[in-house]
Design goal:
heterodimer; A: about 300 residues; two-stranded antiparallel ribbon; 10 strands; globular; B: alpha+beta; Alpha-Beta Plaits; two-stranded parallel sheet; two-stranded antiparallel sheet; 2 helices; 6 strands; about 10% helix; about 25% strand; binds thiamine diphosphate; binds iron/sulfur cluster; binds magnesium ion
Chain lengths: ~300, ~100
């Protein structure tokens, strides 16, 4: 227990620094913390998306560990190659880590990810989920939630934003019988840190899905990134869980939820929602939690 | 402790000055982000050194010193996350 990495013990070194992400960017916090846990042995692969766009602007290069941009679809396949290559030339103590957006993971990159898990390559794949294609101006991805307004799911009189529910990528990944998968949020960094630490020691493929709000795309003030991530968990629209040894485990099982309306209406992308739309989201939430509580191993761990 | 840091940059004068291929030196910074900021966070004496601001700063610009914390204003964007997260309201935002 006591050898957990904390704010006190985590390395003072910064591996993602001076980057050009917008002020208050959640994705940049996820990348920063992941690399602090993994250390200089991390070889990071970033596909097209905000984090590569803000990190690599030659000659201004914001990663101090070895890092490379992959094709949009190819995070996982490049990870496979990096891992095999580093091993072949005798590099020791490295971790091939992917840092990819929700679009790059749940949509265009899902085939490469599925293949890597199928081969059980020794890599860590981290998806920072800001719930849309942010780098190209806020288009809907497979991880955009129901009701959210994006440039490709506008809200008007008849249609109120995105019509489809958020893909459950954590369970899609787990369904491969992956050695380790987890959900996380930048609203709870101690939990995220523990999971990266745990995942880095897994032999085989590990996957972490971390929610990382984008103030621009979500329509919130830049100082509310952490707060909104916490509200999302408190109202039950996100949960902290793990999949390991073939079993799902809920890390936190709240006795009651805070107001889903408070969470939604604090964001520009949901401002247009009507009571009936919010009802749909609340119903989806309740159905999901009922299934989780019935079927998963709900041991509450101290986070 | 190490992190990417500011270094001089000479614009390539001729073709051979350009890097071979797309790979180049890691952690090589040439521009500051301080101009993005409207407000500057100031850590006051109320600070109890709980390190929450250090942990949650998206830019990683709050750093530990011998007697507490300091901020690298070259790269702080003034987002105010540190002010919000502080349990002691020990960070004040000052208009630039
Ligand atoms: C094959 C291909 N299609 C489209 C693009 C354009 N593109 C670059 S970044 C991006 C959006 C990335 O979204 P996401 O993966 O969610 O990351 P985010 O920008 O939100 O961090 C798109 C569509 C591309 N680079 N390559
Ligand atoms: S658009 Fe959003 S995800 Fe992209 S850099 Fe800005 S805040 Fe971060
Ligand atoms: S969050 Fe506040 S009290 Fe804690 S270290 Fe930062 S300034 Fe000090
Ligand atoms: S204002 Fe933002 S960038 Fe500056 S120190 Fe605070 S959290 Fe970091
Ligand atoms: Mg995205």
């Amino acid at each position: 227990m006591s050898n957990k990495i904390t704010a006190k013990t985590i390395t003072d070194s910064e591996f993602f620094y001076g980057h050009k992400a917008c002020a208050g960017c959640g994705g940049s916090l996820a990348v920063r913390i992941a690399l602090k846990v993994l250390g200089e042995g991390a070889i990071s692969v970033l596909p097209a998306g905000c984090m590569s766009a803000v990190g690599f602007n030659y000659p201004h290069l914001c990663f101090s560990n070895n890092s490379i941009i992959s094709t949009f679809a190819g995070t996982a396949s490049m990870l496979t190659g990096v891992e095999a290559g580093a091993r072949a030339v005798g590099i020791k103590n490295f971790k091939a880590v992917g840092l990819a957006g929700d679009g790059g993971t749940a949509d265009i990159g899902i085939q490469a990810l599925s293949g890597a898990i199928d081969r059980n390559d020794d890599i860590l794949y981290i998806c920072y989920d800001n719930e849309a294609y942010m780098n190209t101006g806020i288009q809907k991805s497979g991880l955009t939630p129901f009701g959210a307004k994006t440039t490709t799911t506008p809200s008007g009189e008849n249609i109120h934003g995105n019509l489809r529910p958020k893909k459950n990528l954590f369970e899609i990944v787990a369904a491969h019988d992956i050695p380790y998968a987890a959900t996380a949020s930048i609203g709870n960094l101690p939990d995220f840190i523990n999971k990266i630490e745990k995942a880095s020691k897994i032999k085989g493929t590990a996957y972490i899905h971390v929610v990382a709000p984008c103030p621009i795309g979500w329509g919130i003030p830049v100082n509310e990134t952490i707060e909104i991530a916490r509200k999302m968990m408190d109202c039950g629209l996100w949960y902290l869980a793990e999949y390991e040894n073939g079993k799902f485990k809920l890390n936190k099982n709240p006795s009651d939820f805070s107001s889903i309306e408070d969470y939604l209406l604090a964001q520009g992308r949901f401002k247009h929602l009507e009571a009936a739309d919010i009802e749909i989201l609340a119903l989806q939430r309740d159905t999901k939690w009922a299934t989780i509580r019935k079927n998963w191993n709900n041991i509450q761990e101290e986070l | 402790m190490s992190k990417p840091y500011l270094r001089p940059y000479q614009k390539p004068q001729k073709l051979s000055d350009y890097p071979l291929g797309t790979a180049s030196e890691a952690g090589y910074l040439v521009t500051k982000n301080s101009g993005w900021r409207n407000e500057r966070p100031i850590i006051t004496d109320e600070c109890i050194n709980c390190l929450q601001c250090y942990l949650y700063c998206p830019d990683g610009v709050i750093f530990k010193t011998e007697d507490g914390l300091d901020i690298d204003y070259d790269f702080c964007k003034g987002c105010g996350i540190c002010e919000k997260i502080c349990p002691k309201q020990a960070i004040k935002m000052e208009v630039e």
